[in-house]
Fold LysR substrate-binding domain-containing protein.
Amino acid sequence: MRKLPPLGALRVFEAAARRMSFKLAAEELNVSATAVSHQIRQLEEMLETKLFERGTRQVRLTTAGQVLFPVLRDGLDRFEQAIADMRRQEASKVARLTSTVAFVAKRLAPLAGSFREAYPEWTLRLDASHRMVDLEVDADAAIRLGGGDYPGLVTEPLFADRFAPVCVPRLAPASAADLKHATLIHYDWGTLRRHDARAPVWRQWLERAGATDVEAGAGLSFTDEIHAVQSAIAGQGIALLSLTLVAEELASGILVQPFDLTLESDRYDLVYSPRMADRPATRVLRDWVHAQFSGDA
């Protein structure tokens, strides 16, 4: 439980500090200057420190006041912006869903039309980003790939991902040993999973397949997962890719999965703030996402 002074007193202090005047703060808040002075004095007593040095015709912040003011100002500015965004969203009925660049491109974007069909009065806004956005300000919900540990957020499991070698049909090898003659396509996990022994990489798959004489690090490497997918589709080699991201290509026959052996990866989860759970946009996204991916679990 937060131990804070009354928010009304903090708001009065912020206005007086911003205007450097009890009189101007009173006009802004539509109260008397005496009421402003009384609120600030009560706040000082509660904090056991002076916030203003009072002169005959002006006031100035003490050192403590200078520390408190910018924190309070920025917090109120953000609070005001969040309320404005919420009201604007409620008026326009925009549902904001964020996920990784690859998942938005390969799974969500092709499904966007179904959202419009199910909720014609709503607009779906997809945010493709690798950054962890604020799920109370920047988006209503997120689909995240990871271990399912998102403190402070509601987490609803969707499905687990798996990785396997995929390629165009003409490059399909007859056995794992034939991979020594193939160009291997890699997705460079970089800092995302650099120290994760379970990261789905060629070295791990080849060891599981018993193909220890295949050079695991050779071939083509991409820092963007979408580029690795495109390289495989272009017939540039055999890629170890997320079966989730290439599901459409596998279903259409553009790509094939020549081996049954797969590597387990992380889980896709729908996550959102518990404080936003009852908002219409969050409920709409929750229903739509589960309807789209219930068969993938």
About this structure: Strands lie at 52-54, 59-61, 94-99, 123-128, 141-146, 154-166, 184-187, 220-222, 238-242, 263-272. The two ends are 37 Å apart (CA to CA). The mean pLDDT is 88. The CA atoms of residues 15 and 128 lie 38 Å apart.
